[in-house]
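Quick question: who can interpret this fold?

. . .
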Amino acid sequence: MQFVEEIVVDEFLPTVRSLLAGKLRERGLTQSEVATVLGISQSAVSKYAHADVATNDRIATDERVEALTEELADGLASGDVTPVQALIEIEVLIRELESGGDLLAQLHEDAVPGLADRDSSFRIHDPDSDLRTTERVLSSLRRGLRLLENTSGFAGLIPAVGSNLVACTPDAADLDDVAGVPGRIFDVKGQATVPADPEFGVSEHVATVLLAARREGSDVSAAINVRYEPALLETLAEAGYVTAEFDESEAIERRIAETLADEPDATVLYQTGGMGIEPLIYVLGTDAESVAETIRSLV
């Protein structure tokens, strides 16, 4: 398994440093001065000068890389460009070359042939690709779950029906666009237990609350349910969260719509229970990690 970032570190950066070192030496800088400008050792500059560092010809001969290193060499040599400015320019070029179908993306696909076997419309490096989008959601969700698992006292907030931390894609339309924990999170002998890695389409209850809030214009992408306690609501309100009560029933979407019509800024929704219904608090937020951090503040 090789990530595109490894290609940046192992091939792109050594090649660009080598090009810059050579161009700066051509402009009259000493090895010591080149080392200072590039933030590397003199011995490293010497290795670049003697071609002792492996470089990538495809990167070195790319017109954009060549043009940028020429421009930066001129600026660094004259003092018109600072090392920080040069770093920013190189970072911008890296992001451009990582985009779908471009140089670094091609090198990555060459290093990991399986990527090229995907449908021709697929590009892992396209920031708008479905896979990148869903993986970002799952990654955020996993980080949020780790925060909760490592939060002492979180198990005490888990209701009898279990908790679930969920997150959705930016254009979520239905339950399949919401990821959560299969089987929910349960308190097992005082320890919050996450039974499986998060997946899409496995949460119904908390996902329904999240989607209902989004349909009413709420700018949220994640949610969790915890047990209801007036003290918890008070703590959240004191922290600046807008709370609102709704009547949980079979028409949950309509109930949330009515509630948010009165309190459009509410990100803490709660219901106090009823016949066969456990009282719960739902905390909503911009992403899974921020929701988990909110829960950590309660214990």
